[in-house]
Amino acid sequence: MEKKINIFYYIGALLIFFATLSGWSTIINLNTMYYPLIVVGIILMIINFLSYRHSLKQFLLVLLLFTVFFYTYIKTGLIIFVINYLLIICAKGINFNKILKIDIACKLFYLISHIIIFFLDLFFELGINNIHQFADSLEYRESLLFTGPNSLSALVFWLVMDYLLLNKDKNVLKKSFLCLIPIIIIYYIANTRTTFYLYIIFLFLVVIKDKSIGKRIINFLQYFLSDILFIISLLLLLFSNYIMSHFNEIFTIINKMLSGRLIHSIRAFDKFGISILAKNGSMNFKQFFIIDNFYVLTIISYGVIIYILLSFLCKYVSKKTCIFYKIIMITSFIYLFSENVCFNGGVCIFICLLGYLFYLNKKRKDEDDNNEKIFNK
Length: 377
Fold this sequence. Notes:
By secondary structure, this protein is mainly α. Among the domains are: about 130-210, no CATH class; about 225-375, no CATH class. It has helices at about 1-20, 35-50, 55-75, 80-90, 95-125, 150-165, 170-180, 180-190, 195-210, 210-240, 240-245, 250-255, 260-270, 280-290, 295-300, 305-315, 325-340, 350-360, 360-375; strands at about 130-135, 140. Helix 5 packs antiparallel against helix 6, helix 6 (about 150-165) packs antiparallel against helix 8 and helix 10 packs parallel to helix 17 (about 325-340).
């Protein structure tokens, strides 16, 4: 019976992954089908959720998440809050490896189809409108028909993460080094530093994960890193005027490294201040300010309560999380400091992982840890 019910979640996830990724494409236009696909996916996930019994603690958490996420959706108009909520709370009884395979299939379809059409356009001059971005007069950045180089690099990065998650019990260290190849290739194609440097950090954590000091570092970072990054973001906003007046050269360098995003964050903060709960019109907000830092967005637009809930969920699942899952979470925390993409459950597996761990029992976690030790010796 459970397998028959689970199919609703898998099909729902497939529709959501596929529809969400279409927003990154300049050639696959699902504008008329986007919301119908999302709605069908939502209905299927709700069926999966209602088919299971839930503990009182889980039910209360689900109710709290519902209240905050749907309030935020109403205020901001961002459907991603509904999608993320459902990917988390409807994940009971799922096989996480199947979700990874679905996500890999969607990402591979988009990546391969874009590469084929890109080269057909290049050699046969089909007249397809390709997006080429220039950071300055000397820097060329290719997007391979995605909406931008950052979208292309993020898709490849999370495709690699999906693959490594699927093989976390099968000599993951060796596979992690091999996966450095596509990361380097996409670094030279799209010229995006974020995913390259982030993967180096990820690789370092994989190398030290089986050492006692490595485990302590990873456990600490999984529990506290997101809070540290949130506090850093808040302090940068609160003391921005002081920093700009006393450390102007350093500020200018950091702002340039972030493509001017830091000054946008400061101007938005001066205009809107701190938001405990979501404010109206985040869609209009994006027209005036380019802000990719998730922590800054929760402070200014989404509401601090969204961050608090996400942080609480990450801590709630920490005791049920094997060491490799913790590395993925740490990687996501750092990515969120630079790009908001990790909060998009249709693109980044981080949200689905939270949902899976939310319902995971401690015994299953111990089995995952033991499997890692056996296969990665």
